[in-house]
Task: structure prediction
Amino acid sequence: MKKLFIQLIQELAAGHPAVLCGIVASHGSTPRGAGAKMLVLEGGKMMGTIGGGAVEYRAGLLAGELLEKKQSRFESYRLTPGDVADIGMICGGDVRVYFQYFDPADSSARESLQNALELLDTPGASWLVTAMDEAGWRMGTYDRENGLRGLDTSMERLEPLLGSRGMLDEGETVLFAELLTRAGTVYLFGGGHVARELAHILAMADFRVVVYDRRPETVERTYFPDASALLCGPFTEALQQVGTITADDYIVIMTPGHQGDYEVLSQALRTPAKYIGCIGSKKKIAITRERLLADGFTEAEIDRVYAPIGLPIGGETPAEVAVSVAAQLIACRSGRLEAFR
Result:
C-alpha cells in the first residue's frame, strides 16, 4: 500500500488525475478481500491488484471511463463457477468495488494521503477511513494518538469498524474503515544477507521493520530501503537502544556471530515480545540453551524462542531462509503459529 500511495501522491502533485479501485465487501471464493486496492492512471497504467482475472479486467475498463468522466461510483461483480473466462474467481463469488476518482486540485485528499503515508511508518495500529455518499467521498485517518483526522463522524459509529479487516457500514453515508498498520514492529538484529532479504519481504507483507547492527557499514539505506529505522550500536545494549519492546512486537536475531546472538537473546527473553526467533543450527541452539539455563533462565522462558528460526521448508539460500522466517512471522501475526510447532 505504501508504494501505491506514494505513486498516487506523485501523480496528483504532477497534475494527473487517478482512480483508486478498492474492494469494500466480498463474499464467496474471492482471491482478495475487503481492502485490496488497484490504482488506475491516465494511459491505462495500473498498480496493485484486486485479485486478477475478469474482475480486475472489467474494473480496469470502468476505471478508465471514470477517469474521463471525473466520477466516482460503486460497482458489484458476481461470477459463477461456469464463468470460464475468469481466472481470478474461478470458484465463484462476488465483490463490491468503490471507484474513487482523485482530482489533482483536491488538497484535502492529498493531505489525507500524506497522513496515511506517515502512519505507515509508525508502530501503532492505524486505519484509513472513507465516507461515501451521492455528493462524492471524503477520506480521513484514525489512530489512537491523533484520533480521527480529515473526517467528521462519531466514534460511536467508527469504533465497531476498527478491526483487522476492512469493514463497511451502510447508511445514508457509507463508511469504510481499513487497517493501515497493525500494532507491533519487527526488530531485526543483524544486517547480513538473510536480514536484507527478510526486511524486503516483510515490507511487502506490511510489517514495520527496524534493523539494528553493531557494524555501521551494514545498516545503510542502500541495503534496507524499506526499513522504518536503521540503528547502530553494541549488541550488549541492543534492547536498551531500540526502546520499549511491547507484547505486539517481534524480535528476530541473526547477528554475525554466536556471541552477538546470545547477547541479544538474553535481553530479548526479558521482554514481553510476541515472537522471539534466533537463526542457527540445531547444535548451536543446543549450546545456547545450556548457556541460558546456566545463566538462570528457566525451561519455560527458553521455550519461547523459535530456533532454528523459520518454518521447515528446506531452504538454503538467504532468500529461501528469509521466506521461511517471513512465513513464520505471518503465522504468528495471524494467530496460527502454534499449528507449526
Summary: The chain has a mean pLDDT of 88.
